[in-house]
Amino acid sequence: MNRKRGKYSSILQKLYGVSPSSEASENVMVCNAGLSLGVNREDILQAFRPFGKIQSVHLVSKESHSFVKFLTIEHARACFESCNGKMVLPRMNGPVYLLYLESMPKIVSNEVFKCPPGCRIIENFINEEEEIQLFESVKDSLLDGGGELKQRKVAHFGYEFLYGKNNIDKDKPLSRGLPQECNMVKDRLLENGYDLKWMPDQLTVNQYFPGQGIPPHVDTHSAFEDPILSLSLLSDYVMEFRRETQHWCVCLPRRSLLVMSGESRYAWTHGISSRKSDIVVDADGCLTTKERGTRVSFTFRRIRISPCDCSYEEYCDSRTCQPSAEFQPIDLEQEYVHKVYENISDHFSRTRHKPWPAILDLVKSLKPGSVVLDVGCGNCKYFGFSSQTYEIGSDHSFGLLTISRERGFQAVRSNCLSLPFKNSTVDCLLCIAVIHHLSSRDRRIQSIKEMLRVLTSSGQALIYVWAKDQKYQGKASNYLKNQSHHEGNRLGLTGLEKDASVELPVHVNRTDFSSGQNDVFVPWKLKLDSSADPSSTYLRFYHVFDEGELENLCVEAGAHIIKSYYDNGNWCCLISKIQGGVLAV
User: Fold this and answer.
1) Which residues form a coiled coil (predicted)?
2) Residue 492: per-residue pLDDT
3) Are the CB atoms for 329 and 443 separated by under 8 Å?
4) Could you state, in order of their start, the residue ranges of all structural domains in the chain?
5) Strand 214-217 and strand 202-208: pairing?
6) Residue 500 — pLDDT band, cuts 50, 70, 90?
7) Per residue, what are the HEC states of 256-306?
8) What is the 3 state secondary structure string of 446-504?
9) Phi and psi at residue 567, in whole multiples of 5°?
10) Domains 119-319 and 329-583 alike in fold
11) pTM given for the model
């Protein structure tokens, strides 16, 4: 214990200029439990809360320690004496070690418990009787006529909300209007001092069971007016708002109405994390956890007829810069994907030799005799690990296909939008880092439809795409960490040529992607030394994916999502067919 105290005291002094305290203090350092070890705030709060009230928990990006501030010294002492060197937290192999601190280090946190600008919570917007009436008015629609998504049950009124497009079809109103029990919303808002200028004409009802959530998103600007209204029934939940580096948590009490207007509606994503409890602030201003129940949300919107005229252009789809008519999607891909990979194929292959563990596990798990197709196979780095499967690759790059042949693997030249294979012939399909090179949403959906077409009834397809968020849950991806890699030179616009008609930014390698832009050019530098002339640098087109975007594409393409996850800077989906409305098993 003394050796460990000396080690962690040194770290504390070096990083924060703070000294440990020989006396009990309300400030405690958890020396060996932090984000880099997979420990989160909820783990710490659940473990330490039984010993007393906790004012704050601070975790530091990329560090293996954290800090807890108790309300009183007595609470901290109870935790210290019971846990130091004894308690094992989730995902840890040994006990935690604690230090008292003279003061808390100055740590800037991007997570706060308050509403973003333009967001308002009206508590007790309805009473208990109205809550029951509202739920009864939609219950049958949820259970019988609603669509069941991977994370929740849903029903639509007025217009159907199309999750794949995050939009509605304005020309196709539903025969089912909003329940009459909802007619009071406008007048009730006025009673609470909010003058709503319109009556809602679209309602989406979601039912969340404990552990379910919805990915972060912004309701499409061009689809709906301002504001967006969300009424919470049956259970309290925490909704998370994000804008760039800011992360704000908003508690939605049961029977409250959330009003998202202005900045919170147009510029912040909102979502609900998939977990069974939430961290909330109690009456003393201390953190505590609250178990979730089943929540039903009523989201009220008004269909927008004219283009959006908000003042948040960088987030507005009505004013998003698109390639000019001279550069259609097929031309963009030909110039900035196909030609590039022909030029860099040898260098690209030399940097792509180590299989990703999760993908390799799937390949090794296949039954003898399985047919494996790798769409966008590159140099076929996932082949050759099983002698009992039939493997075939598919790629557009002649240079990469030549390398695959030299390595002894079979591969054909084709485009992922039109695969040259018969229906229902593939048991396992891999599509790793491919469809993020497709330059339109419709083309990405078409590629997934092609994958489903060639899958057998029991087949599975695994899709990986590059994530816009390269610091998921506080942990940086290898893309951000590996500064010595051949792409590590932080290139700007200087010396890089592109067609003036294509209005897309050039990404600076090894940095975070801009929050307002998903379509970018990513440079590839052929030579390792920084003095190489710009002609050896090529621009590749990428569409980097938001959380939940790949899932939405798969659902719209007609796939069943077996599982989805984040893997080191990539969003990933394992999918299968749905045949005749019934899941193929």
Assistant:
1) none
2) 37
3) yes
4) 2-109, 119-319, 329-583
5) unpaired
6) low
7) CEEEECHHHHHCCEEEECCCCEEEEECCCCCEEEEECCCEEEEEEECECCC
8) HHHHHHHHHEEEEEEEEEEEEECCCEECCEECHHHHCCCCCCCCCCCCCCCCCCCCCCC
9) -135, 95
10) no
11) 0.52
Q: Which CATH superfamily is domain 329-583 in?
A: Vaccinia Virus protein VP39 (3.40.50.150)
Of 76, 19, 79, residue with least CA distance to 47: 79
Strand partners, 119: 260
Report in angstroms the alpha-carbon separations of 102 from 76, 176, 499. 13, 63, 59
Query: Can you tell me which residue has the tokens 């499967």?
Result: 389
Structure tokens at 280: 């909330």
DSSP-derived pairing of the beta strands 295-301 and 287-291? unpaired
Contact 503, 323 (CB under 8 A): yes
The count of other CB atoms within 10 Å of the CB of residue 533 is 8
In one-letter notation, the amino acid at residue 137 is: S
Fold classified for 2-109: Alpha-Beta Plaits (3.30.70)
Q: How far apart are the first and last CA of the chain?
A: 54
- Supply 205's token pair: 């009802």
pLDDT tens-digit profile of 80-137? Answer: 999 998 988 877 778 899 999 988 887 766 566 788 899 999 999 999 999 999 999 8
Cβ–Cβ under 8 Å, residues 554 and 574: no
Q: Which helix (H) or strand (E) holds 180?
A: none
- Cβ-proximal residues to 71 (8 Å cutoff; 6+ apart), any chain: 26, 52, 53, 54, 55, 284, 286
What is the architecture of the domain spanning 119-319?
Answer: Sandwich (2.60)
Distance CA 247, CA 65 (A): 21
Phi, psi of 526 (to 5 degrees): -70, -35
How many angstroms separate the CA atoms of 486 and 492, rounded? Answer: 15
> Which position has the token pair 């030299």?
406
d(CA 92, CA 97): 12
